[in-house]
From TrEMBL:
GO molecular function: ABC-type vitamin B12 transporter activity; ATP binding; ATP hydrolysis activity
Source organism superkingdom: Archaea
Catalytic reactions of this protein: an R-cob(III)alamin(out) + ATP + H2O = an R-cob(III)alamin(in) + ADP + phosphate + H(+)
Name of the protein in its database record: Cobalamin import ATP-binding protein BtuD
All copies of domain ABC transporter, residue ranges: 4-237
Function: Required for corrinoid utilization. Probably part of the ABC transporter complex BtuCDF involved in cobalamin (vitamin B12) import. Probably responsible for energy coupling to the transport system.
Entries under InterPro entries matching the protein: AAA+_ATPase, ABC_transporter-like_ATP-bd, Metal_Ion_Import_ABC, P-loop_NTPase
Family note: Belongs to the ABC transporter superfamily.
């Protein structure tokens, strides 16, 4: 099953294009990483995939529907780049955030036993069930990211989209976070990850898209590491340390 279909998409906020002639598909069960320099159009691409913008040219489909017309939003779990900042001001508990994922499924708008069970299982899956009653304002960045992934799992999301989720997260939590994503993917979750850490994308994902307005590479991480796509996409902004490419 094709989860994401992007066909010759171009988009610009003004006359200057942000994305040009982008085409790729993501099938169910894939774990895809998107890399590119700052201002390369990565977040804009996600917004097009989620139907928040319409492409100037081309076509975007999400789970078989035109992205702009896709109505079953609970099927997609989206963790935004700035979610850890936004939630610092939310006076609610972890359990309450995760229960939000059940609202589209709740009969007559009421949260029932099944919904609470789903939320509890989601918290257990991401390893923060012991934090259920803690206010989200009192969590670390990594714990907040796990909370929002749990909300997606509670809502039975089929696709997890993450926009630079490790920004502001300490190194130890980052490694644990990628372990969690790997486990979720092993269980069948389709994952689309925008990440600034190129080494982490090469190590953890199954497929890499390298973007800088246009698509410079689409393929396996090992082939990406051995290609010249980084040099072409990043120019002088790339340096290589030993055998790992980093920014």
């Amino acid at each position: 099953m094709t989860v994401i279909h992007v066909d010759n998409v171009s988009f610009g906020y003004t006359a200057a294009p942000v994305l040009e002639d982008i085409s790729f598909d993501v099938d169910a069960g894939e774990y895809v990483g998107i890399v590119g320099p700052n201002g390369s159009g990565k977040s804009t691409l996600l917004q097009l995939l989620l139907g928040l913008h319409a492409p100037d040219t081309g076509h975007v489909e999400l789970l078989g529907y035109p992205a702009r017309e896709f109505a079953e939003r609970e099927r997609v779990g989206y963790v935004a780049q700035d979610v850890t900042e936004d939630t610092k001001r939310m006076p609610i508990t972890v359990a309450e955030v995760v229960l939000m994922g059940r609202f589209p499924h709740a009969g007559f708008g009421r949260i029932g036993v099944e919904d609470r069970t789903k939320a509890r299982e989601a918290l257990q899956t991401v390893g923060i069930d012991h934090l259920a009653n803690r206010r989200i304002t009192n969590l670390s960045g990594g714990q907040r990211q796990r909370t929002y992934i749990a909300r997606a799992l509670a809502g039975d999301a089929e696709l997890l989209v993450l926009d630079e989720p490790t920004v502001g997260v300490d190194a130890e939590s980052v490694e644990s976070f990628f372990d969690l994503l790997g486990d979720l993917n092993d269980d069948g979750m389709t994952i689309l990850l925008v990440e600034h850490d190129i080494g982490a994308v090469i190590e953890h994902t199954d497929r890499v898209l390298c973007l800088n307005r246009e698509l410079y590479f689409d393929g396996p991480p090992v082939e990406f590491a051995e290609s010249d796509a980084l040099d072409r996409a990043y120019g002088t902004n790339v340096r290589r340390d030993d055998e790992v490419t980093v920014v």
